[in-house]
Amino acid sequence: MDKMSGHIEIRAVAAECLIDLRHAVLRKGLPRETAMFAGDEDASSRHFVAEVDGVVVGCVTLHLNEWAHEPAWQLRGMAVAESHQGRGIGSKLLLAVEQSIVQSPAGVPRLLWCNARTPAALFYGRHGWQVVSEEFEIPTAGPHVKMMKRLGMKDEG
Q1: Contact of 61 with 45, CB cutoff 8 Å
Q2: CA 140, CA 129: separation in Å to the nearest integer?
Q3: Tens of pLDDT along 103-132?
């Protein structure tokens, strides 16, 4: 009965590999260009997808963007295809993002922040993120809260 039991692969990609999913999940009904973010093409930006049987079903992006006057990564464009939600794909993407930062050389920021859609705040909270703002509205995307997480150094192993 479960046709969605394929292997989930998380990998780093170029920005253009995730625009279609970002558009379908986060910018539905808006022009495709709204799914392209300023900073996507920066050399420092990091983009990850989750694939099942070669099909992109999840995505996330990190942009270098300071938080409270401190170097930080802004998590943006986190999305999982509706047909694949509830399978742990978002958790696997977050883990990949965090591992990419923790395994980076010294000097790479270890602070993450995002504007989380209010319904997703519990998901991020389960992964150690903290709400650090009151709820606010993003006109094209609904209610959000700012969230952050500070990562440790790469000493686990």
Answers
A1: yes
A2: 24
A3: 988 888 999 999 999 999 999 999 999 999
Q: What CATH code is carried by the domain that includes residue 33?
A: 3.40.630.30
Residue 19 lies in a domain: yes
Q: By the 8 A CB rule, do 154 and 108 touch?
A: no
Tally the domains of the chain. Answer: 1
d(CA 79, CA 141): 13
0.85 exceeded by pTM: yes
Q: In this structure, is residue 130 part of a structural domain?
A: no
Residue 74: is it exposed, middle or buried by C-beta count within 10 angstroms (0-12/13-18/19+)?
A: buried
Q: Any residues with CB less than 8 A from the CB of 113 and at least 6 apart, and which?
A: 65, 67, 72, 73, 74, 75, 132, 146, 147, 148, 149
